[in-house]
Amino acid sequence: MDRQIDKLRKRREFLSAARGRKRAMRGLVLQALDRQDDAPPRAGFTVTRKVGNAVTRNRAKRRLRAAAAEILPLAAKPGYDYVLIGRQDTPTRKWAELLADLRDALDDVHGRRSSKPRGRSSAPRSDSTRSDTGKDLPHG
C-alpha cells in the first residue's frame, strides 16, 4: 500500500491545515485537515526558532520527514492535509518513540483512539529518558 504523499508548499495551505484537528505529542504536533476530496494526502513540515539554531531545526525537519515517509503512506487518508510541527524534543527523541508519537497522533485526529487514557498518569515517571547530568543526550 505504497501511496504517494504530496507536499504542502504555500503558506495558505499551512494556515488552512491549522484550522483542522490538532494533537500535541511530546515529539511533535500534528495538524490534520479533511479537504473533503479524494486527492492524495499532502504533508508539510515546520520547526520554529524556539527549537534551536538552524542546524537543530534542520535536524528536526529531517527526522519529521523521515518519520512521515515511514508512517504516512500506510496511515494517511486521501483528502487530508497534514502539518507536522517540530517541538523541543524532536531532534533528540528516540526514533521508536517519535514514530509512536506520529502513529498515536494520527489515530487521534482520525478518531481511532486506542484505549490508553488521555492526560497525565499518576504513575511515577521513569528516569530512563534523562541523562545523569540532566542535559539533553548528544544527538550525533
What does this structure look like?
This protein is of the alpha/beta class and 140 residues long. It is 32% helix and 18% strand. It is built from 3 helices and 5 strands, in the order βαβββαβα. The chain is globular. The relative contact order is 0.21. About 8% of the residues have low confidence.
Which secondary structure elements does this structure contain, and how are they paired or packed?
Elements: E1 6-7, H1 11-18, E2 21-24, E3 28-34, E4 42-46, H2 54-75, E5 80-86, H3 95-109
Parallel strand pairs: 1-4, 4-5
Antiparallel strand pairs: 2-3, 3-5
Can you describe this structure in just a few lines?
This protein has 140 residues and is α/β, with parallel strands linked by helices.
The strands making up the biggest β-sheet line up spatially as: 1-4-5-3-2
Tell the overall outline: globular
How many β-strands, per DSSP?
5
Helix content: 25-40%
Helix and strand pattern = EHEEEHEH
Q: How would you characterize the largest beta sheet?
A: 5 strands, mixed
How much of the sequence is in beta strands?
Answer: 15-25%
Q: How does the helix and strand content classify structurally?
A: alpha/beta
Rg: 16 Å
- The number of helices is 3
Low-confidence runs of at least 5 consecutive residues: 120-124, 126-131
Instruction: For the record, give the distance between the C-alpha atoms at the N and C termini, rounded to a whole number.
Output: 33 Å
Look at the structure and give the mean pLDDT: 85
